[in-house]
Amino acid sequence: MSSAPLTSTPPPLLPAKSKSSPPHHPLLSHLPHCTSLRSLAQLHAAAVKSGLAAHPAFVTRLLTLCTVPGAHPAHLAYARQVFDRVPHPSDAVWYNTLLRGYARSPSPSPAAAAEAAVRVFARMLEEGVAPDTYTFVSLLKACAAARAGEEGRQAHAVAAKVGAAGHEYVRPTLINMYAECGDARAARVMFDRMDGDCVVSYNAMIAAAVRSSRPGEALVLFREMQAKGLKPTPVTVIIVLSACALLGALELGRWIHDYVRKIELDSLVKVSTALIDMYAKCGSLEDAIAVFQGMESRDRQAWSVMIVAYANHGYGREAILLFEEMKKQGIKPDDITFLGVLYACSHSGLVSEGLQYFDDMRDHGIVPGIKHYGCVTDLLARSGQLERAYKFIDELPIKPTPILWRTLLSACGGHGDVDLGKRVFERILELDDSHGGDYVIFSNLCANTGKWEEMNRVRKLMNEKGVVKVPGCSSIEIDNTVHEFFAGDGRHPKSQEARKMVDEVFDQLKLVGYVPDTSHVFHVEMGEEEKATSLRYHSEKLAIAFGLLSTTPGATLRVVKNLRVCPDCHSMAKLVSMVFNRRIILRDLNRFHHFENGVCSCGDYW
Question: Which residue spans within 261-371 are E strands per DSSP?
């Protein structure tokens, strides 16, 4: 076999000439030991010489070997070439093996894998080979991974035509496909058509709700699942914990943790990792650390999630120490690990350390992605190196996204650089002119620097395009119920009580020197008193006030905000923590703020 040439193109198939019975041919026993494309090509060449290459048993085993989980993409490409050389493939197993390979492989991209899977399926129908449930499960998974909704719907139509759409394995896959492709309505229709209760289908629907940013619905489905006596799988638990993380529902997350212990799933690394993530995103870094330290074994994802947790809570040095410890333990960092370290450096002002870690990525064979570039942009911009950040974005090897420029625009606002801000704002509009936050940041920057004419031009442009600012929304969990408050409105049933409590809180805060910070309220027609009033009922203030009303003295308040916390709300929270002797943990769009005894963990650097 050593004389066989190395090639990524399979040799031509020849008629079988071997007198050996193919199922017992010695070459078949060598196939499982071909771990490289070179050895596979050599054995395949030997099979051609012996007349075995066209035998169904050999083709089946070769295709299976090339599509096992974790196989290199080159092996899948080789398998496809072997398959394409078969004149009229009639074995459904061959088609299903290839489709399973495309469903598992994201390389070179999910879209390319889905496209290839669709072509294999089309040939299957052209050759008159009947698809079965395995066919549709793999095809639909490939479509889901690529968000290929149209192709998924066509596959659904064929599955319905041949009577496979209602199968116990196909239906959950259909639900998942529609959910991944953003069609929540179709996913729900499929779910409601279920004849019986199925854990896999519930998992798909719960995941669909989480992906669609409807965590409350995910938790309702989980409770419904429990009421029906269905036992959650590790997948169920992981998805539900992510819903708790999105909502910031700590008490519910703790209840699920207790439940996980009862059903003995807490020893699973993936479940423990989800618990770390949930606790960190719900504001309890202490619980996240406790879970991490209690793990008997940790994989790379567990280390990475803990590093990101430290970063999000502003503990940059601790994140770096953990990263270094991870490497000492022999765990190789990946792109997510480096993202956590870079994020930690950017939010802790560790500029030189962050740039060094960015350079180290290539030493580990990791190509930076858009999020890594975003961290470096933030790192430079926060430290006031605005022109350097602009040059960094402008010279990237990939096309910059609006988010990168948006990061720099926000920093221009913080540092009062209106000239660079205008250049950045114009770059953003070239890519995306529909984001209301961009107009608000730049118009505020103009107002803050006295560029009133430019401010009015931007606001006029905003009105002409019909762009609206995303309303501020803050949530707080009280007695396992998540309460949401929106800036200035009365949607919550106890919004009037919350507003009255805000007034009482401010009366107390004024006694210790509170003065409204109106520096970011840029309405020329407003006086200072009107500006202060416009700040008073921001959503996080309402949530904090409601928390003071609804909890016992000394209880920690945990608030989740959908936008960046404004300077006035930040000052108010610091004073509330001191005057009312409360610990307040506020998660905004960028990070966590731990307020205690009048001080914030961010050091007023956010």
Answer: none
- pLDDT confidence of 152, banded at 50, 70, 90? very high
Task: Identify the residue whose tokens are 């998660």.
Answer: 587
Q: What is the 3-state secondary structure (H, E, C) of 316-334?
A: HHHHHHHHHHHHHCCCCCC
Buried/exposed code over 434-453 (b: 16+ C-beta within 10 A; e: otherwise)? ebebbbbbbbbbbbebebee
Report the distance separating Cα 347 and Cα 135, nearest Å: 48
Residue 188 to residue 176: CA distance in whole angstroms: 10
- Residue 314, sorted as left (phi over 0), alpha (psi -120 to 50) or beta, turns out to be left
- In tens, the pLDDT along 361-416 reads 999 989 999 999 999 999 999 899 999 999 999 999 999 999 999 999 999 988 88
Bond prior to 397 in cis (omega within 30° of 0): no
Q: Beta strand 584-587 with 481-486: parallel, antiparallel or unpaired?
A: unpaired
Max CA separation in the chain (angstroms): 99
pLDDT in tens, 197-212: 788 888 888 988 887 7
Task: Identify the helix (H) or strand (E) that includes residue 580.
Answer: none
Mean pLDDT check: name the lowest of 236-240, 353-357, 444-448.
444-448
How far is CA 399 from each of CA 280, 287, 421, 435, rounded to the nearest angstrom?
A: 33, 40, 20, 19
Which contiguous run of DSSP H or E holds residue 587?
strand 584-587
Structural contact between residues 227 and 236, judged by C-beta atoms closer than 8 angstroms: no
Could you tell me which residues come within 8 angstroms of residue 27 by beta carbon, excluding any fewer than 6 positions away? Answer: 43, 46, 47, 50, 52, 58
Q: Which residues pair with 600 in a beta bridge?
A: 595
Structure tokens at 53: 């290459």
